[in-house]
Write a structure and sequence with these properties.
With 169 residues, the protein is of the alpha+beta class. It contains 4 helices and 8 strands, in the order E-E-H-E-E-E-E-H-E-E-H-H. The chain folds into 2 domains: 137 residues, no CATH class; 28 residues, no CATH class.
Length: 169
């Protein structure tokens, strides 16, 4: 998604869109690696406001993702959502020193040049941060039996592991 800088004057500018995941290389890479599949387009809401020497962008992005539970190995779907704020600064021709100390604002800033600010990589990064490293189908997932590999969410497997683990030595 791109925002034309000239459109941002004294009043906030709001943009809403629904875009395909294929427009976001970072997300297609994540999907290609097998970590998850995106099952819905990306819903994007951005509000941009000119503040002093930068443009502040408040955003919300969401989509639906299919993942494999790290405990029971069953596939499940979940909505993911990210709310964020970015500060956009015009790229200057001045090179920074290697030892420049970054302020908190610098950590959530992006640089732009020209007439448009492209949010493609930032939107992709926001959604990637919401994909869990160890996804769980639900918090109370019991996982697989370590002896027979039965899904314990479906009930007791009956292989005897439960009796062996409950005995006192």
């Amino acid at each position: 998604m791109k925002l034309r800088v000239e459109d941002i004057k004294e009043k906030p500018v709001s943009l809403s869109a629904e875009e395909p995941v294929s427009d976001y290389p970072a997300l297609t890479d994540l999907s290609s690696s097998g970590e998850c599949d995106f099952t819905a387009p990306i819903s994007i809401d951005l509000t941009a406001l000119r503040e002093c020497d930068h443009i502040r962008v408040d955003g919300n992005v969401s989509t639906r993702v299919r993942m494999q539970c790290s405990r029971c190995l069953e596939e499940f779907e979940r909505d993911i959502n990210s709310t964020f704020t970015l500060f956009c600064d015009k790229k200057s021709g001045v090179a920074l020193d290697a030892e420049t100390e970054l302020k908190e604002k610098d950590l959530i800033s992006i640089l732009y040049q020209g007439d448009y600010i492209d949010f493609t990589s930032e939107i992709g990064e926001q959604l990637i941060m919401e994909v869990p490293y160890k996804p769980l189908c639900r918090e109370e997932c019991k996982g697989l039996c370590s002896k027979c590999a039965a899904n314990l969410n479906a009930g007791d497997c009956g292989c005897g592991k439960a009796q062996a683990s409950s005995s006192v030595f």
